[in-house]
Design goal:
CATH architecture: Roll
Oligomer: single chain
CATH topology: ph1033 like fold
Radius of gyration: 14 Å
Distance between the termini: 24 Å
Helix content: 25-40%
Strand content: 35-45%
Strand order of the largest sheet: 2-5-4-3-1-6
Length: 116
């Protein structure tokens, strides 16, 4: 199983007054087939990984303008995992394309970056 970390740009939601958790949890466009592989969701603001969560439950929005988007409920990751992401953030954040709000990285890829 390919375990992934989903990194999200959350700076706009933070500017709206949301806290890190509310900014990161949704509502996002994501292929629901990818959801079982996401172990961590990390929020990025100002070019820095500022938070990370372990999703325990996913919801699909059923109606309205956000219909089909997904959001999660979860808990903060242990500090050691957040620090790993922060240590690798320079290389990881290069994966964001122009205008892209999300990027995926596998846990094995993160570990490879940290070993270099």
């Amino acid at each position: 199983m390919k375990e992934e970390i989903w990194l999200l740009k959350i700076h706009n939601a933070l500017k709206e007054g949301k806290d890190n958790y509310e900014a990161a949890r949704g509502n996002w466009k994501i292929n629901k087939g990818r959801i079982p592989y996401i172990q961590y969701v990390a929020g990025v603001s100002g070019g820095k990984v500022v938070c990370a969560f372990h999703p325990s439950k996913w919801e699909i929005i059923e109606e309205g303008a956000e219909k089909g988007r997904k959001c999660f409920e979860g808990t903060e990751v242990p500090l050691e995992i957040l620090k790993k992401l922060q240590k690798a953030e320079e290389k990881v954040l290069k994966k964001f394309g122009r205008g892209s709000a999300v990027v995926y990285i596998s846990l094995s890829e993160l570990n490879s970056i940290l070993l270099k």
